[in-house]
Each structure stands twice: as structure tokens, then as C-alpha cells.
Amino acid sequence: VAYNPWDLIRGEVELWRYEGDSSLRQPHAFSQPSPWAWVDISQLRAAAPLHPVAVQCQEAQVVVTVHRDLFGMGRLVRAAELTLGSAACLPAVWSGAESTVTFMAGLHECGSTLRVTPDALVYSVTLNYKPAPAGNPVIIRTSPAVVPIECHYPRRDNVSSNGVKPTWAPFRSTLSSEEKLSFSLHLMNDDWSAERVSTIFQLGEVLHFQAGVNTENHAPLRLYVDSCVASPTPDSSSPQYAFIDFSGCLVDGQLDDATSTFMSPRPRQDVLQFAVDAFKFAGDSSNLIYVTCHLKVSSADQAPDPLNKACSFNKASNLWAPVEGTRDVCSCCEMRSCGLAGHSRWLHAPSQWQGGRVRRELPSQLDPLMKEAEVVVGPLFIHSWQDHPVRRVPSRG
Prior knowledge:
By secondary structure, this protein is mainly β. Among the domains are: about 55-155, Immunoglobulin-like (Sandwich); about 180-340 and about 370-385, Immunoglobulin-like (Sandwich). Helices cover about 0% and strands about 40% of the residues. It is built from 1 helix and 26 strands. The strands form 8 sheets. Strands 1, 2, 5, 7, 8 and 10 form a 6-stranded antiparallel beta sheet that branches. A 5-stranded mixed beta sheet has the order 13-25-20-15-16, with no helix packed on it.
């Protein structure tokens, strides 16, 4: 399927003419001398219905209103992580219960700079988002952002932009099978209705995985995801991040900055879905991750147990909960010891890597009633605004 991956990370620039609060969120073409604001939100890739940053350029001050859903992903940033200018001015109005944060600063305050052009006086300042470290130090789920803001007091003006062409290409997910059972792992779209075409994500988005097994003429089987490990290369080399571990514990959901979970109920016994907040490896410039999951099946009439389960961490109750079965099958997730440690993870290095496919052979002495396989999806490109910055500069007439 052909598509333009750059559509996913295009930038935006808005020109705001100040006419009071009623028009704060409406961009206008400028036609007469009057204060106007220039805001570059290309670093945010905002998808929210309202623009995340609205600016009023007043006679002696600038008023910046910021929606805490800064990236349009439904995840509110902390107000304390937002500052204005190089002087890191704090918001004038904010509350943990509010969805917006407001800054008010004089044109010469907060480290703003003045530039004089033949057409205008231009006051420049930046809105800064600097997230505090949280969760596992090996991975990050959000990245800092800087939103340039300018207040112009012009004679004439317009805005121009230059496009940027990506230098990379996406790849398809991979599929592997084991013996007569065909295991699969796919990336799905947000409503689980179809396989996702793109493998490009931004920090703040959610990865929707669907694991399945084609049972064909087999007796009814129930599928489990025993473990999933992410790595920057397809051979599961260091560094690694195990987000499902201990025979079906989705441990990533315990981190403060994650909402990862198994989806319940299952669509079918031979299918298991799980959602994981996007992440990338800290310090890795490739921004690629490969996900290797160990899938296995048991008889559909076999009750879940500590070795055959799908458990998510519920932050509201502070307890582990199974997709099916009694809650006690998840108790070993808290102890991080579910028996037969290392039984099913990384049995062999890949015996084949070609054409976007991985196949791993499993030991012949496995329980004949338990079929299993390792499946790889990747590479996934997880980007933030620093990876492909889009520069927008107003022309000088």
C-alpha cells in the first residue's frame, strides 16, 4: 500500500491577529497594521480539535494559553513542566484540575528578544515543555518540546514555509509460524478493525498489537503471550526492554507513565489483543524498535494458571487482573516469579532473517500439548519532534 509517511509528521504554523478573546483560536490573514502572533506548532504535530497553543499579542504583554493535551494524544502534560522563555517563567494561572495553563508576561520579560526588521518590531519567546524523568530509565515515552512564539507589530507581512522530504522508508511487520500452528502478531489501527498500514509512531501514541493463531483442524485452543521484548535490532541484542514478562504479566502497565493493558474480553479464544504506550530507547539515534513476542497455546478448556495467563495491572485498584480466570493466577506477577523462570524466552537466535520474515526453531522436547513460537514485528519507527524538525520562518515581505 502506497502512502506518504511525511503526512504523519507534517508541521503547522499559524498566524494570529489579536481581536480579543472571541477570536483567540481563529487564524486570520493579516491585512492592516495591528499586533499579531506567529506560533510554530510543527514540533507538536497537534491532532486536537483546538490548537494547543493560543497567543494574544497585547500592547505591552503577551498572553499564552496552553492546552495541557499538548500533543493531541489525550495525555495531559503536567503544568509544572511548562515554562516560558529562557528565564523559565512559570504560569500565571494554572490548576491541576484545569485543562489549560496561562502565561502572562511583559514583552521584555522571561528572556524574550527584540528584533527590528524593515517591516516590524518582532518580540520572540519560547514555550518550553520539559518532562520530568519517570518510570523505567531505559525507555522514554515523551520528549521535550520548544514552541517558538513571536509577536509582530508590522507594516506588512506574510508567512512562508519550506517542505522537508523524509530520508527513510517504513517496513512491514513480520510473521512466523511453528509446525502446523500458524502464529501471527500484527499492529492494528486504533479501533482494532483492521491491520495498521504504517509502522510510524510518535511518542504519546499507543501501539495496538493483536496476537493470533490459526488453529485450522486443531481442537479449540486459547492463545497466550508469554513474553514480549523490544530491542533496537532484530536479533534482540542489548539494550532490551521486556514489557510482557513472567508468563503473561504486562509489567509495562505498572510504570507511572504507562497505561498499557491486555484488552478484555478477547474477541476469540485464539486471539489476544494488548495496547502498549509508544516508547523508544534513550540515547538511540535510529529511533527503531523490533518487538519479539513468545506466543503459546493451551487447550481452550484448560483453566488459566500462573504459567498460562494474561494479566494487566490496574492502577485504580493497585491490583493485577486476568483477562480470564481467577485473580490468584496473577499473584506471581507482583512477586515477579511465576515458576520455570526463563522457560520460554529467547529459546534460540533467529535461524532466518530475510524478506521481512523471522523464523525461530523450538526445542523438540517441548510438551506436545503446548505449541509455541516466537514472532517479530518491526522495525517500528518511533519519532519525536527532534527527529525531523520542520522549520518555519516568516518572510520579510
